[in-house]
Amino acid sequence: MLSKTIRYYNKRSLSVDVSAYTRVLEGFRACVGNTPLIRLPTLSKETGCNILVKAEYLNPGGSIKDRAALFLIQDALDKNLIKNGATIVEGTAGNTGIGLAHLCNALGFKCEKIDILRVLGAQVTTVPVVPFTDPNNYNHHARRYAEKHENSLWTNQFDNQANRNGHYLMTGPEIWTQTNGKVNAVVMSTGTGGTLAGISMYLKEKNNKIRTVLADPPGSVLYNYIKSGKLERTDGSSITEGIGQGRITDNLKDAPIDESLFIKDQDTVNMVFKLLCEEGFFVGASSGLNVAAAVELSKSMPKGSTIVTCLCDNGQFGMPKVNKIKSQLHAARACRESNIKVSSSSDSSNDEYTMDIDDNEFNFNEKLLLTDIRKVKNMLAY
Ligand SMILES: Cc1ncc(COP(=O)(O)O)c(C=O)c1O
After folding, report:
1. Is 315 in the pocket of ligand 1 (CB under 6 A)?
2. Measured CA distances, 192 to 32, 81, 159, 245, 341 (Å)
3. What is the architecture, at CATH level 2, of domain 65-154?
4. Is residue 347 over pLDDT 80?
5. Ligand 1 in contact with 165 (CB < 6 A)?
6. Claim: this prediction has a pTM higher than 0.90
């Protein structure tokens, strides 16, 4: 009976490889990291390079930041900076707070971040967005809060190098092992810089020829800093949350990063939809940015090269702006299907729409989406 079932599914290319799940993991903390490395077939075919993505949204708290959270807490434990019942304080745009809140629950600490954080038992204080140089910047709030409260620790994700050490010890070796050392470039957007710095430090030690590339959105200084050493912001602002920077964090300091790429928000958003409709992944804006950068990088790599990046988090949380764009896009399509006129940047025959969203103009190729959704259906109909 069993072998008949296996033969049935094998014939339909639906066999399941269970070799990766060979042991029982001990609790939340043991599930952080060791994420699958996935080849994106459509983009790999289009670019002539292997575009590989680490599925970081599969971490137990839902994002790449579980890794930083684990190492920030583990480092504090190793240095005896916290004892049972301590309160962990962090200034965060979201994902680090979620990772910390999960770990605090699992390890018996308390944690201070909005909706999902409160569900996880964290206490959240929201503060206005101001630059790091302003004493009211969220990082300084977090530091002061921890200083004022007994048995509290500010994990300081931006400047605590335990963050990048975690990626040096874990994410870098995972990429090296999963590719059998056959990796030619790694490209990543940065917030704290911990991910790219740690991975680059490890991979460069293994093979100095691996290209390490920082992908930067509008409004950040890092693109220019890596190109020319000048801390000059690029124009505009970005819909990506927690990505881009106005300074060089300690996690980014002296990291072996070779070059930088500037990625427009429109390319980021288009890639979020392409990943959804052509590759089947619903991921957040920073993942769109990362893969758009991998595609851009492939233009200057020999054919057959392997480029690694990350799908940092799931599209279902942390990206209200992209979700808003997506719902407007669906609304536009529904209107068109019902023959209701929507504002169009060009004649209706080429299906190009321009929508005004949060003062930014995004162009979407509706035809691409419709065609690709059909393609996905075909893919599933074996
Ligand atoms: C979804 C997401 N992707 C990427 C990053 C950047 O990672 P890192 O802080 O290691 O540079 C962040 C940082 O907050 C993030 O939330």
Report:
1. no
2. 19, 22, 8, 8, 44
3. 3-Layer(aba) Sandwich (3.40)
4. no
5. no
6. no
